[in-house]
Amino acid sequence: MSDIVWELPALLWALPLALLPFVYVDVRKSVVWLKLTPVDPLSRILTPLLKLAASLLIALLVMALAGPHIPEQLSQRSGEGAEIIILVDRSRSMDDIFAAAPRNTLSRVPIGTQSKRQVSRDYLIEFIQRRPDDRFGYVFFSNHSTELLSLTYHKDAVMATVDAGALGRGISQTNIVEALLKAADMFEHEIYRGARRVLLISDGGQLLTEQEESFIRQRYQALQLGIIWIYLPAMRGMTLEPSDQDNFLWVDMPERKLHEFFKTLSIPYQAFEAGSLSDFADAIDAIDQQHYETLMVDEVQPRKSLADRFLLFALMLAGLLAAIQAYSWWGAYLPRGHDVDVRKLSGICYCEYLVFDS
């Protein structure tokens, strides 16, 4: 009961009204001479109890109107998961059809109808639903980065943000450096709870200067961050790792340069190439299976109203008092044989009293 808070505490000044049943005196005379009524010990016990019930009924109604509730509370528990900042590329290339066929492919080869950003949205929502203990944040970036959602445990808010991030059209420029630093800033003033990951979803890369590389390395090592990159190939056949079938134009692609830089950071780093829906699904499965570490999970207990409980008890007391009152009326106004005799007798005695008294 010590946790109860009142929304309108001023109404509690009306609690003295609960004393009215003890103050009220019935001045009506239903019996001419009280000595004619039999002694009823049970009534002497029930009368104060009924007054107490009526008093409690008034008190419960007043307290219910005052708005009793337990306020929102924050609790912690041990969980298994990670803290993940999602970085989604908003460049114009993410509006392209996901896993589109090369230009020289025959038209009879089926292709998808969803853009890369829409496919990313669908798999991200599925991933979030699998991770009940994870804490998510969301950033989308093009030439500038925008923090849409800070780190939170509210899965509905996270999924709504991811869904909204798939709307609209992208622009031509991309600044991955600013996005990576924005993600690091979101962990800057957070208590370290466990695994920290930055999930990057992009179809491109960026050539970094030595100063940018040094700054990113310093920030990510100091904050104990890891990077997961789901790469959506912009060109069929090109991979992040060099191969014998490489086109000579792919050697210095920004995606490969960025991939090589990530591998030198001395932090946890994984790269997944999602050139098809099955590749994307496999990447999500692999991430989901690997990134489970013990961390402290904050749980918000929502505000809980107690007015309904007060009203329920008041309703029970009101029903009891109404039933007793109905029984009293039934006993008073439905005549019985011996009741008539008592009335006659009481009238006679009253007359004799007047006569002898005079």
From TrEMBL:
<keyword id="KW-0472">Membrane</keyword>
<feature type="transmembrane region" description="Helical">
    <location>
        <begin position="49"/>
        <end position="67"/>
    </location>
</feature>
<feature type="transmembrane region" description="Helical">
    <location>
        <begin position="310"/>
        <end position="330"/>
    </location>
</feature>
<dbReference type="InterPro" id="IPR036465">
    <property type="entry name" value="vWFA_dom_sf"/>
</dbReference>
<keyword id="KW-1133">Transmembrane helix</keyword>
<keyword id="KW-0812">Transmembrane</keyword>
<protein>
    <submittedName>
        <fullName>MxaC</fullName>
    </submittedName>
</protein>
<dbReference type="InterPro" id="IPR002035">
    <property type="entry name" value="VWF_A"/>
</dbReference>
<dbReference type="Pfam" id="PF13519">
    <property type="entry name" value="VWA_2"/>
</dbReference>
<feature type="domain" description="VWFA">
    <location>
        <begin position="83"/>
        <end position="265"/>
    </location>
</feature>
